Amino acid sequence: MAEIKNRRRGPDTMTRSITTFSIFSWIIIIAALIFFQMTGRISGSYNTIRSTFFSFETGVMIAKALLFLNILLCIMGMFINMARNKRKTDRFRVSLIVSFIISLAGFILMVVFF
Predict the structure, then answer these.
(1) Which of 43, 47, 54, 76 could be cross-linked to 58 through a Cys-Cys bond (beta carbons 3.0 to 4.6 Å apart)?
(2) How many domains does the chain have?
(3) Helices 13-38, 94-113: inter-axial angle, 10-degree rounding
(4) 49 lies in some domain
């Protein structure tokens, strides 16, 4: 029997885009947390000493927008990942699901409480 030559040269563009979506989604989550943390309510001695870069409403609005953007990014990445799963060795990225759940929970909490 003739030996089959492996012509694969590494990850294709879909796999690279799924990895890129996963990395960007975690960067957006961290950025949303930083924006939310940088906005403090001025109500205590610690908050009066600490300098805030944004008003509270602006920081919450930016964090909500980033989390919503991340939800859309994770959904696009999951659709690309579902289209990519054709072989037995292909796996679904758990990172996209986890970042989607974190972003959705954070967005819902911000809408409800702020």
Answers:
(1) 54
(2) 1
(3) 30
(4) no
For residue 66, the one-letter residue type is L
In a domain, 77, yes or no: yes
- The burial class, CB within 10 Å (0-12 / 13-18 / 19+), for 49 is exposed
Residue 90 burial (CB count, 10 A)? 11
| Residue in 84, 81, 103, 91 with CA at minimum distance from that of residue 26 | 103
Residue 16 carries which side chain, given as an amino acid letter? R
The answer to whether position 59 is within a domain reads yes
The tens digit of pLDDT for each residue in 13-58 reads: 888 888 899 999 999 999 999 888 877 665 555 555 455 566 778 8
